[in-house]
Amino acid sequence: MPVIRLTDIHKHYVVGEEQIRALDGVSLTVEQNEYVAIMGTSGSGKSTLMNILGCLDRPTHGTYELDGNDVTRMGAAALARVRNDRIGFIFQSFELMPRLTALKNVELPLLYSRTGWWGRSARARAALTKVRLADRMKHRPNQLSGGQRQRVAIARALINDPAILLADEPTGNLDSRTSDEILALFEDLHRSGQTIIMVTHEPDVARHAKRVVRMKDGRVLSDLSSEQDVRMNALPAMPISSK
Ligand SMILES: Nc1ncnc2c1ncn2[C@@H]1O[C@H](COP(=O)(O)OP(=O)(O)O)[C@@H](O)[C@H]1O
Ligand SMILES: [Mg+2]
């Protein structure tokens, strides 16, 4: 059973007289433990797709099955539970709570579960240790570097052992050395079985994934292994014959 099965997903917006087809018939299947990069120019529908995958938004048409459950038919409360328990999010801007320590930030998703305070703390400590921040648990976000903040966000995203880890431009605010650290961490997570879907516009970042889905005008333009994608997209431009 695939982790994700999207069938003919549409997301339309009406702005004034205009109808915008942010997604215009996307069908996509992602198996367990895949590591997928989503690429495409600005406005091609990447974030809209991530918001639907993350159950932050609902499609206008089409079905989305997550772990075999049709989430497009769920009510708001059930959807909120899926979002909290089955999905881990990482954003370009980290989205940590500024007043909370790293530990308290990572504990947040557990507040909605039945885990008691001691269990919450123990699990958050373990998650922070996994991202090599055992010595920064009591620091607040503004006392951490960008890479450290993103590692806190990753620990928080993983705390409920999600079916999918969704990352929208996770290295967009990081320098190249720190980006490499985050990508190495993703590599470890992938090796340990985590399913990962990451949006990026940087070919060097996309190359770390095993599969590359390219979007254009709300549709899937290509869906290739990363080796094939590099071959298709890194070809030198054909010289224009001069006759
Ligand atoms: N809330 C919205 N209302 C109207 N149009 C939107 C909304 N969100 C996104 N769009 C439009 O949908 C298209 C896809 O946007 P988006 O998914 O953010 O693209 P990307 O992340 O690839 O840059 C764009 O044309 C954008 O302007
Ligand atoms: Mg976007």
Features:
binds magnesium ion; 8 helices; binds adenosine-5'-diphosphate; 243 residues; Rossmann fold; 10 strands; 33% helix; single chain; alpha/beta; 6-stranded mixed beta sheet
List the helices and strands and how they pair.
Blueprint: E1 4-15, E2 18-30, E3 35-39, H1 46-53, E4 61-66, E5 69-70, H2 76-86, E6 87-91, H3 102-107, H4 117-130, H5 146-158, E7 164-168, H6 176-191, E8 196-199, H7 203-206, E9 211-216, E10 219-225, H8 226-233
Parallel strand pairs: 3-8, 3-9, 6-7, 7-8
Antiparallel strand pairs: 1-2, 1-4, 4-5, 9-10
Helix pairs in contact: 4-5, 5-6
The protein binds adenosine-5'-diphosphate and magnesium ion.
Shape: globular
Alpha-beta classification: alpha/beta
- The second-level CATH architecture of the domain at 33-45 and 81-233 is 3-Layer(aba) Sandwich
Radius of gyration: 19 Å
Query: How would you write the strand order of the largest sheet?
Result: 6-7-8-3-9-10
